[in-house]
Structure formats: C-alpha cells, structure tokens
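Duplicate of earlier report; DUF4145 domain-containing protein input re-posted below.
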Amino acid sequence: MLQVRGLINLDSVDDFFEEFELDTVPSFCPNCNLSFLPSYLCSIIQEDEKIYLIYNCPTDSCEQVFMVSYVERKGRYHVEEIFPSVIKPHLIDDEIIKISKDFADIYSQACEAEKRGLHLICGIGYRKALEFLIKDYGAYLNPDKTEEIQRTPLSNCIKQYIKNRRIKSMAEKATWIGNDEAHYKRKWESMDVQDLKNLINITVSFITTELLADKYEQAMSRS
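Output:
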C-alpha cells in the first residue's frame, strides 16, 4: 500500500492524503532507459478516478521527471501509460541487426504494445517483424534476387529462399500462428502470442548461429 502525500484533486482544487495500492512501480526511466528505484514526488487525481504519479530519475546523468498514469481496477491501480512515451529497444543480437534493423525496430514496438496490454494487436506486430526478418535474411543469402524476394509472399519466400531446414521449419510455423493473429478465425486455436514469440526467437537463434558460423568460416579459412 502506497501512502500518497500532497495528492491534488484537479476538480475541487483540494489537497488531501490518501492510501492506494499500486499494481507496479516503474523500474526504469523513460528518458534515459536506465533501471532504478524511482523517487516519488507527488500525485494528481482526476474526476475519472485516474491517478497520475510524478517520479524523479535518481541517476546523476539524468535527474529528469516523468509521469505515470494509473487506472483503478478491482481495488488496485494499474499502469496505463508512461510519459514521455519512449520505446525501450528489445535486446537483439548485433548479427541480426546488421541484416535487418527493421526487424529489431518492429519487434521492439510489438513488445512495447504487449507490455501496455494491447494483446489484440501485438501479435500482428510480431508477424510483421517475422516477415522483415525472413525477407532481409533471404536477400542476404540471395543478393541478386532482393527485389523479387521483397515482392514474394512470406510463405513462398520461406520455401524458395531459406535453405536451412530448421530455420525453414520454425519460420513456417511462426508464419502460421502469425497469420492467425490477423484473421477472424484461428486455425491453431491451442497456440497464442507466446508461442509465436517462442518460434520467432528460435528462428532468430538459428539464423544468428548461421551468420556467426559464416563469419568465422570466412575469417579463418585456410588457403
């Protein structure tokens, strides 16, 4: 239970004390992206029962303030939005970023949507990230067919341009679940976004292994 000091009611312009329970407290600053235990400054409550908490980043290199809005559900206050809204990049191997920065950006945005509770749309974002990853990897393997790969539907692209059996298998399965996220009727009813993420992460892992293997084979080949 968090005791709020100096809570301001914008509708009555009254100051008062109140205790309320937060579901979570921010663990990073949206300005500098560093992890920390935030310094609480003050709170504001509105007629719609939303509460806005003002925090201060304690790191010497930042020290900026930011605001978190909370909405009440079943007696607890849950994070609704953080201001300023900054997307924290998902940790992705540099080898993947080199061939598909768009994949890294789209995947990070899909993760952010999921963190904010946007479960009905984050799956589509993961599906889009997968398409960029596979097409960019296909173009990396077949640079003379880049334009053709970009125009080819994802499923056909996997079949035609991805030769590694395990990458092909995982990417195909990820595509099936990803397509379900965009369609009215699901074909794979026992699978969800978590399964989609697992398959994408496995695909990323296999691609990373292939890229690193190629890198060392080229760097250490004997003449």
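Residues 1-16 have pLDDT under 50 and may be disordered.

Merging into the original ticket.
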